[in-house]
Specification:
87% helix; mainly alpha
Length: 174
């Protein structure tokens, strides 16, 4: 297991660093402008901004977790499986699906904010279980999960920037 993780070390450093940088940028974007700060009370703000930060944080924490010099696969699989299940529960608890219906978002937004993240975390549980029986394949699947979460987070962060800009424009024209 240690050899297989060592082979992935650079990948985890790259995706972890990217996730850390993107998390920081989310904090900058959210803190810019007075409207954004006031919009925290907007029903959709927390339902969409916070999960996007959580996606980046998931990648960062998973990458850090996988750079630990593990000697056995069981704790790695258990940690990854527990993390993926916890993220699914989190996404269900925050009720992004309800916010999607209330905000009348289109299906594409539902897919990126709710459906795709839940499917990706479910895939993460499969990857964790796979790593118990075929560690090399499990690590490849986990790598795919991390890249998918980065793509989801980047897409959603961009969508939030566009939405925030439109909200500011609408507020300015009133």
């Amino acid at each position: 297991m240690a050899e297989q993780l060592a082979a992935w070390h650079d990948f985890y450093v790259i995706v972890g660093s990217a996730a850390a940088g993107l998390t920081g940028l989310m904090f900058v974007v959210v803190s810019l402008g007075t409207w954004t700060a006031r919009s925290r009370s907007h029903p959709g703000f927390r339902a969409f901004v916070t999960p996007t930060v959580v996606f980046f944080a998931s990648v960062l924490v998973t990458a850090a977790f996988l750079t630990v010099p593990w000697t056995r696969v069981e704790p790695v699989a258990a940690g990854l499986g527990a993390g993926s299940l916890a993220e699914i529960v989190y996404l269900l608890v925050i009720r992004g699906h309800r916010q999607w219906r209330q905000s009348k978002l289109d299906r594409l937004d539902w897919f990126w904010y709710v459906g795709f993240p839940i499917a990706t975390y479910a895939f993460g549980t499969v990857a964790a279980a796979t790593s118990l029986v075929r560690p090399a394949l499990g690590l490849e699947l986990i790598g795919a999960v991390l890249v998918l979460l980065l793509v989801i987070g980047i897409r959603n962060a961009w969508d939030l920037v566009i939405w925030t800009t439109q909200q500011r424009s609408d507020q300015g024209s009133e």
